[in-house]
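Morning!

This is the sequence you dropped in the shared folder:
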Amino acid sequence: MKKHDLLTKTELKIEKIRLHNANLTEIAAKAAEILGLNSNEVLVVDYHDASLTLDILNTCVNAYNIVGKKQQLLHGLDKLPGVFVSAETSIYSDGMLGWIAMDQEPAVKALRRSEQMAAEMLRNISRRVMVFSTGTEVARGQIEDTNTPAIAQHLSEAGYKVTQGETLQDDRMFIAAKLREVAEYGGYGLIITTGGVGAEDKDHTVEAIKDLDSEAATPYICHFKIGTGRHVKDGIKIAVGQHNDTLIVALPGPNDEVKASLSILVEGLQGGMDKHFLAEKLAVNLREILRKKTTLRHV
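The structure's back. Tokens below.
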């Protein structure tokens, strides 16, 4: 069941309730029991002028456990020694805890509608894709970006809505900042980057994704000896990471490798593959493509 964040509105006030030698620990425990919380998650923080204030220490609650629970809560407290509830006793909260005082049936219906709307929004977000190419040559127009159109066509045919992003500079901090911005504020379920996964000093995409997700999957496509040619890293990697519930996939730059990855990517998305499994599936295919290319060079 989906839980709701109370944010900073965690206080629940019970007005016009009278206490006489009441046990505050018992009051907190009874309130927790009725609201479906652990006994240590409710604390009585104040009693003054017939006003009792409870603090809900668990800021993430199941709305169905609290909605419409006013009468049940007041009846439960009234049974405790030293606690006196009258017809004038009321419950008040500034935030979502105010659901306690709502009529249960219409409130539950409203919750279900909101959950349906939220689920639909999440489905729509999961099918929104932002694609970034990388590299100075692409940014300057020296090299045509053939990857983004190929990605857009394939994913659109699979039911995704694809947006072309700007060409990312060959700068680790810039790439990480742009990916973070889109993941946190863009409303995209998937970000795809192409290029910048090589072993040269201008390749920073994998490292930028690791900056956002330290547990990102980064399997090797091939290995190099550092210092050979322009190689400053020990191989080519791809990356599949996650930030703010947005999946981030870094593919190589060559168009044939990008195209060969798209069916696997869509299959992984639709099958709910975990990032490590998806990354390895992509990497296995890319290794085979590279092996064939290497074989042809030596024929």
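Headline: The chain has two domains: 3-115, 127-297.

More detail when I'm at my desk.
O.
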